[in-house]
Amino acid sequence: MNFLETIFNAIGAAPARELVIEIHGKTQRPTTGAELLDHVARARGFLRAAGIQPGDRVALLAPNSSRWVAADLAILAEGAIVVPLYSRQDPHELAVMVRDCTPALVLASDETLANALQKACDAPVRVALFAELLAATPLHEPPRPLAADAPVTIIYTSGTSGEPKGAVLTCANVDYMVPQTVAAVHAITGSRGAPDRVFHFLPLCFAGSRVMLWTQLYRGNPILLSTDLQNLVQEMATADPHYYLNVPAVLERIRNGVGAKIKERGGIAAALYERGQAAFRKQRAGTANLLDRLTLVAARKLVFSAIKRQVGPSLEFLICGSAALAEETQWWFELIGVRVYQVYGLTETTAIVTMDQPEKIEPGHVGLALRGCELKLDADGQLLVRGPGVFTGYWNRPEATAEALQAGWFHTGDQCEINSHGNLKIIGRVKNILVPESGHNIAPEPIEQLFLDHCPAATQCMLIGHARPHLILLVTGEVPDDAIEAAIARVNAGVPHYRKIKTHLRVPEAFTIENGLLTANQKLRRRAVEKYHHAAIARAYAS
């Protein structure tokens, strides 16, 4: 039985269970298993009547919702290939993806998204709205058979440079991955006796989000979906989850926001907050004395427990992916009573390569290889991956596929280290390596993170200096110059001469998805940032 058949069986076994729950502010709008299957049947009826055949590409352009889930399952059940598109992405970038995969149909949630896409495309695109799907005559049939090597989805990479490429994932890829994630969740939660409350706010078009969705449906477990990222704090309170998937930028924001509020209030709480963290560091280093231990007990009881209630009263753990999480941030969440499990992977590896295990977490690392997945490093420290989760190639890109897949090994582009326990550490992207005029190879990410650790007032920065005489740090926002300079001094004190930051450049505008300087999952588009600020950077080096 493949993953899709298992999902349909699990949904059918619990028709009255509230399975997909949309969070709208203070209210929850549930869709039961029976209702979800009805929506899927209607969507399948529409697709069949529209002439969609097995192997056709069908693009899915919509924000998260129960209708998104129904459309995804319906396309898969018809044997077609789902091409999920990010609803907040620039329409012209979406048009590039549509031109590449030539879908037989695009399913859009509303006319606004449909019209924007059609306007951006240079050729007519066949589009249907969600309302049409759910008004169709239902088709009640088992899912069409899927061969192991049958493509089930094409997920476009975030495109930190150049045009995005469509990674083709097969039924076999998903059949391998979902049981792995189901087992991993069970190892953490055990037998709860009741469904987990799993909140999800990341777009379902991402590979990791999709695996999270399929994992919960495979288990017959409800998933609670955010519908308004501008109201995330309220939605989180309404959902009151046991856990959720997130990216490092979100956890850094939580940690920095809490620290800023406590510092602003001042008083005993602020002092105990700082002393408690210092005592926790000493405890981890094995140098804590009796006063440190008493301070830590008091801080946990009076300060950190209150922080935990604010972050999430029922929150048991977090799953963090997309990029490496700062070690101090992972320890901070541990201190407030929320364990963070890191996962690492790429779209091309069906989202996951390594995953933290409950008794083997090492903050600063992203876990051990999944069962059946092989890892090795090449001469440049680039991580190579081989195993059942590795994709078959990029859609219509034989040259890119041949470059990425060599002798069965996928070249991740990530510079990594593997310790004696097999735990993986991400250093940075190989292609992000800066080589200044000194000739040294410098990974920017560790230096950037070190600066952010020393400068809590800053939320974004980017190091530049490739083929230039020295390193300059771009810092966004209204951060005091003295705070920036103090943090840079602390960074420079601990690195060799060629990694020292000579000066900084203030850029008032934040790096965002909307201005094209961040990818959809919050990663820096470094080349775009340098191009965007080219004139200011040129003046900084000329001065």
Distance between the termini: 66 Å
Number of DSSP-assigned strands:
24
- The shape is globular
Q: What oligomeric state do these chains adopt?
A: single chain
Helix content: 40-55%
Query: Percent of residues in beta strands?
Result: 15-25%
Q: Could you describe the largest sheet, including whether it forms a barrel?
A: 9 strands, mixed
Which CATH first-tier class of the largest domain would you pick?
Alpha Beta
The class by helix and strand makeup works out as alpha/beta
Number of helices: 18
CATH topology of the largest domain: Rossmann fold
Strand order of the largest sheet: 2-1-10-9-11-12-13-14-15
Task: Domain count, please report it.
Answer: 3
In the CATH hierarchy, the architecture of the largest domain is: 3-Layer(aba) Sandwich
Mean pLDDT: 93
Q: How would you describe the overall organization of this protein?
A:
- With 543 residues, this protein is of the alpha/beta class.
- It folds into three domains: 29-189 and 204-216, Rossmann fold, CATH 3.40.50.980; 248-313 and 315-406 and 415-427, Rossmann fold, CATH 3.40.50.12780; 432-542, GMP Synthetase, Chain A, domain 3 (2-Layer Sandwich).
- It is built from 18 helices and 24 strands.
- The strands form five sheets. The protein has a nine-stranded mixed sheet with strand order 2-1-10-9-11-12-13-14-15, with helices on both faces. Strands 16, 17, 19, 20 and 21 form a five-stranded antiparallel sheet that branches. Strands 4-3-5-6 form a four-stranded parallel sheet, sandwiched between helices.
- Strand 5, helix 5 (111-120) and strand 6 (127-129) form a beta-alpha-beta unit.
- Helix 10 packs across helix 11 and helix 15 (444-454) packs across helix 16 (481-493).
- The model has no long low-confidence stretch (mean pLDDT 93).
